[in-house]
Amino acid sequence: MSARYDFTGKVVLVTGGTRGIGAGIARGFAEAGAEVVVCARKEPGAAAGRFVQADVRDPADVERLVGALDRLDVLVNNAGGSPYAPLAAASPRLHARVVELNLVAPLLLSRAAHPLLAASRGSIVMIGSTSGTRPSPGTSAYGAAKAGLHHLAACLAAEWAPDVRVNTVVVGLAETPDALEHYGGSAERVRATVPAGRLALPEDVADACLWLAGAAYVTGAQILLHGGGETPAWRHAVAPPGPDTT
Q1: Model confidence pLDDT, tens digit, residues 175-200
Q2: How far apart are CA 31 and CA 20, in angstroms?
Q3: Which CATH class is domain 11-226?
Q4: Do residues 69 and 11 lie in contact, with contact meaning Cβ atoms separated by under 8 Å?
Q5: How far apart are CA 71 and CA 129, in angstroms?
Q6: Would you kindly state where each structural domain of the chain is located, as residue ranges?
Q7: CA–CA separation, 136 vs 142, rounded Å?
Q8: Which residue from 33, 77, 98, 201 lies 20 to 30 Å from 2 (Cα-Cα)?
Q9: What's the pLDDT tens digit per position in 107-161?
Q10: How far apart are CA 202 and CA 206, in angstroms?
Q11: Among 65-74, 84-93, 119-128, 195-204, the least confident range
C-alpha cells in the first residue's frame, strides 16, 4: 500500500496490531510516517512499530499501556474476535470473555486514552463487524458485542465532541489466516457471496482507518467496508429471469 497520508509526528496505538487486520493497520500508519505502538498478549516475531505486551481486557494492563505514552493522536481499537461458539453449547465464561474483549476492552482503552487524545485533538477508530449488524449464528456473543461497540462509538462521538473524534469501520468478510480457518477453508465459495468478488484485505481496512483518522470533520460515522455486503441467500434459490418477450 502506498502512503497517501502524512502522519509524521503523530503517535498511533493499534491494539491487536501484531497479526491479521491489526498488523495491516499498523503498517499503514507506519508507512504514513506515524510512530506506531502495537500491543497484544503475546510478543510477535516482528511488528510494525514498538511492541508493548498487554492484555486489553485487564484494566491494570490498560492503565500501564496508556500511562507509558507521553502523546497519543490516534487509538485504533482493533483487538477482538471469537471462536465458533454456539450459545447453548459454550460455557458462560467463554461468552463473557468474548464480550470483554470486543466491547469492554475498547471502552476501557478509550476511557484511559481520553486525556491524551483530548490534548492532541485526536481520534478513535473502532474496528467493528457486520456480525454486529445482522444475525450472527454461532457467534452470538461476538455479534452482540460488536453491535454494542458500534453504539459505544456513536455515544462517545457525541459525549467527547469536539475534542476527540470517534468513528467505526464496520468490516465484512475479511481475508486473513484466522478468518479463512473460521470459514472452514472454503475461501472461494465465501468470496462468491461478496458482490465485489473478493474478501476485504488488511490494507483495505488500513485505508479506511487512515482516512477517518485524518478527516477533521468526520465523527460519529460508520464506514461499511464489506464489498457491497453479502448476496442474500434467496438469490441462489431463484432462477434468473428469462428474456423479456413483451
Answers
A1: 876 665 666 656 777 787 788 778 88
A2: 17
A3: alpha beta
A4: yes
A5: 29
A6: 11-226
A7: 8
A8: 77
A9: 999 999 999 999 999 999 999 999 999 999 999 999 999 999 999 999 999 999 9
A10: 6
A11: 195-204
Burial of 75 (0-12, 13-18, 19+ CB in 10 A): buried
pTM more than 0.85: yes
Cell numbers at residue 213, please?
483518522
Annotate 154-202 with DSSP letters as a single string.
HHHHHHSTTTSEEEEEEE-SB-SHHHHHHTTT-HHHHHTTSTTSSPBPH
Q: Is 142 noted as a catalytic residue in this protein?
A: yes
What is the C-alpha to C-alpha distance for residues 116 and 67, in angstroms, rounded to an integer? 10
3-class secondary-structure state, position 11:
strand
8 A C-beta contact, residue 10 and residue 37:
no
Sequence-distant (≥ 6) Cβ neighbours of residue 227 within 8 angstroms: 172, 173, 194, 195, 196, 197, 198, 199, 200
Cell digits of residue 231? 448476496
